[in-house]
Amino acid sequence: MVKNIQAIRGMNDILPDTSRYWVEIERVLRQITLQYGYQEIRLPLLEFTQLFARTIGEATDIVEKEMYTFLDRNGDSLTLRPEGTAGCIRAGIEHGLFYNKVQRLFYCGPMFRHERPQKGRYRQFHQFGVEAYGLAGPDIDAEMMLLAMRFWQELKIDHKVELQINTLGDADSRAKYREHLVKYFNDNQDMLDEDCKRRLLSNPLRILDSKNPALQDLIKSAPKIFDYLDSKAHAHFDGLCKILDQVKLPYVINPRLVRGLDYYCLTVFEWVTTDIGAQNTVCAGGHYDGLVAQMGGKATPAIGFALGLERLLLLVAENLTLPVLDTIYLVLLGDRAVTVGMGLAEKIRKNNNVGVIVNCGGGDLSAQLKRANKSEANMAAILGDAELDSEEILLKYLREDKPQQRIKIENIENFFITK
Ligand code: HAM
User: pTM for the whole thing?
Assistant: First the structure.
């Protein structure tokens, strides 16, 4: 027996009953983002591996163990993008998008990480991300947070998410902080678990991220980044808090928020929830002011965030009302009706607010009405020889208790426009 081929673990099909929610959520996100003056950028799924290693950081979980990397037929090492920021910078430098210009960009699409799949964590997942270049903040930081808040409000989940913010300072203050943090955890090495011992060598700030309950007291007493900030970083953070207070956007300062990618500086932020289990970060981002220059471009301040669409869907699903399109199922009885019906359907579809599903494949009246009932349509329009002779069409409501109607074929377009 031939064994059926199945999808790869952690890579999900999005079936028609769910894809409708995806389309609607993406529509809302796009519409709001465009309103803030961001423009869409579409980037390749594959990039040279070096791009991610150099931007995200060699010592991060993503680069160390989660990337889908392979040699292509030319022997080049390529990687399926694990996130969108690196590609966005690559494209911006390559096409001169950042040159003496402010750019507000957004993207939407699949990302790939070889993580252990669980609820809210997949190997192919989807991000909606925004990035702004050429603006130092803190006004742009606040804009990003307000923009995300608009998403949550529009999707009616603002009561389910909390904004957490922190600052990582500039490279110098972070280096100073890192030194003290390493000393502190080194002095307490016997208390650390294996994962944190590894992080102590590779990326000590990430120890602050550990969820191990046995380490929480140790982490709580660790040195705080705020004590190592220079005056510029302090002013930036205070400036952001002031704007957030002014616009009444609630936030929590979380000094342990450090992010898992290396490129961040100054403001970092996450929107977290308690509603979807362990994978509780819906949206995350921050400044990455050094990265454009590090990748060969002109020094350009930058900030962005990305939200996980799967996680958003878990939060949104029951609150979302999908737009309904009046849809007619066109029942065609006999060859004459088929010939006329195809053209008639085109005429009706010219009105964008009406959908028409034409019965293809024949069948008697009851078979076609059965199909109409199973379809998305809320009306059936019946066209047979009798209707053709009287130049009328018979309209039956499928989901409402309303009497059927006869409509003159020549008036059919107007009927749906004025309905
Ligand atoms: P990130 O925190 O790695 O940041 O991912 C952002 C969001 O993507 C997460 O908060 C989560 O919602 C979603 N996500 C990440 N991994 C998975 C997964 N395996 N399964 C499902 N959802 C996932 C970035 O990617 C940065 N590029 C964000 C950014 C943009 N920073 C500045 N600009």
Answer: 0.91
